Fold each of these.
Amino acid sequence: MVVEVGYAQAWDLEACAPWRPIAAEEARERDAAGLPYVVVYREPDREAPLEVRLVSWRDNYVGLWVYDAQGRRTYDLDMRLLDDPARLLRRYSVGWYYTGPEMAEFDEACPRITVDLFPDGRGRRTEERQGRGGGSYATSPGLRDDERWMDRPAFGEWPLLSAQVHGLSEPPGFEAAEVAEAAEPGDGDAPATCWRPPRPAQPGPINELFRPGVRVTDGYHPVMTVVEPRRVGTLRVPSGLLAVSGPDIDHGDGPRITVPVPPGEYVLDEARVRFGYRCEWRDAAVTTTEPTAVRLLVSDAPAATWEMALGPDDDPRLFIEQQIAGFDTDGATGCFADAGAWEPLIALFERGLIRGESDLDGYEDIDDGSMFMQRTWDEASGGEFMSFATTGDGTYPVWVGRSEAGEVSGVVVLVEGMPELLPEQDGTPTDAAV
């Protein structure tokens, strides 16, 4: 069997076709420079590709997409280049098992198997059973080392990794595909439908959540208008290291996230939105105000950029598309605290809230209608702790805003998901009842 091998700067997912085909020599140059490119394997008489390999060494990434005769993706493998330059971790994979030729690509009813692997040997295999019975089943993959890792081939020496999927009993012969058009210079103007390397979750319009008059939507309420942030209080961080964590999780190793800030006392406030909706039990249109985020305001300088804070064992090279890092909570609670006094502050929180000790020095419940619920303080160091409510359990990212000078200007936790900005309406924000 003969397989044609072609190269391109990108892969257009919508067209299922290469974008800006390039010659093998140019692809080799891009490979050496770490620039993104794709490799397309085809049978001469088959419209859909056999597989597409997506490479971006500067992102520590190699992807493999396998297609069936109907042009549907059946397998997606995400490989990562880590500390050993000679091998790749099979970081994440999804296999789709279409029940017939008429089933659409990525149909929700399509059974699938997801495998999530980490370099330390941890992993999770999840089988999603659709149709009769449905549900999902998760296990530990129990893979050998050679099943978790792949030797990194040199450029031009990659095998057809999907050969077994396509029923090939012998290695195919490869020949170069003709370059139908010359590639134009430049990398930044690929259409939005083109593949790009996986990115972790992005911050979204955080500044706008604290800007009165901005109109947003959460997908359920069509129009929500940002109102003046509500100042709740202040937090003293004399150690110069801010802790952001879930106070209800075991903290044997200390707080989950820490952010260096100048020693000082900082304002705590809430971002809020006002919106209207139809209250069924009152049979009336009502307007309400709800918080969307909590913030520790470090300076008056506006945030020019936002970045996701990482914990000590978070490795960005392992992040898959839209992955988040942050603190975990099983009790819908987060906190800001002075990391230098973490142990006495969290101990006071546990004594006051969990054990219910009355008249406890260094602890108070906050009952002002805000998202903040408890405060503790350490007399010895002057450090303080403030807990706040989230809207549920799970993992919450911590966003660090930086000024044009690169200094920390604020630290934000979204207690709801990130809403979407709406266009301005004649400069006048409006509330809408549903």
Amino acid sequence: MSIANVRTGAERTTPQALFRVSPPTRAGEVNRMTMDLGAPEPHGRTAALGVLLDDCLGFTMYERRGDRAGLVSADLSVDFVRPTGWTGLRLTAEGRLETRGEDGAMGSVRVFDAAGELVATGTAWGNFIDGVEQSRDDRPRAPSDESVPTSTTPLEAIGGTLERTDRGARLTVPPNRSLANALGVMHGGVQACAYDLAGNAAAAGTAGTFDTSSLRINFFRTVPLDRPAVFEAEVLRAGRRVVVTRVTCTDADGRECGVATVTCRRAAPGDPVRPADAGILGERDQAPS
């Protein structure tokens, strides 16, 4: 679950700063945001896009909320048209409002690389809410020109621990206020990143290297940040070219906070070779160099 919010000033300790996502700009009916890519993740090279997609969609719907107090993301769907081979280190997201009703809205987004090639498309539904206020953000601030190093991977950015399980993979995200939205709970884009990482790692465990091709998330409840959150991935079906995984997010009390279906396709010939278990198991378990 995610609540769109507007922030100003230096934000090193926010998801937007951790993933180098710019503030939104609006040109007519289009909301535009950019993200500077960091180091690729061995599992889930598309994982970093979660924050960019969720933010762009959230702001697009939030700006059209009228007199309603806020917006809560209900679901997020993403298709990675081209999960690898991007040109340049900056991606641009363009969001549009598709429909608005009394109680919610639906938006769409398209992401392009530096050459203008389409990278991903996405949609989200959001529910309007009332009676909420943005809590005071007392997290330490840093100079606006201070950024997170581009050598940081998505897994490092969220501080997670990824491990293999008998059924797939498990990603544990420790308490970390840097992952919060304006209401102090886990940002929806950070959750999307975690779902992608866990689902892709489970797919890789079936043998080989895979790229995430689609991500479908239903947000049930907010994810607290005062205790660890767990993203448990299990393989639903493993074929030669396609692996489908289901990832469930639970809080420290075992309550389900959301669920995602992650579809992964075997990496195409000519893609950079990655050790099958790099970044998920210990050195003794990694593929030999």
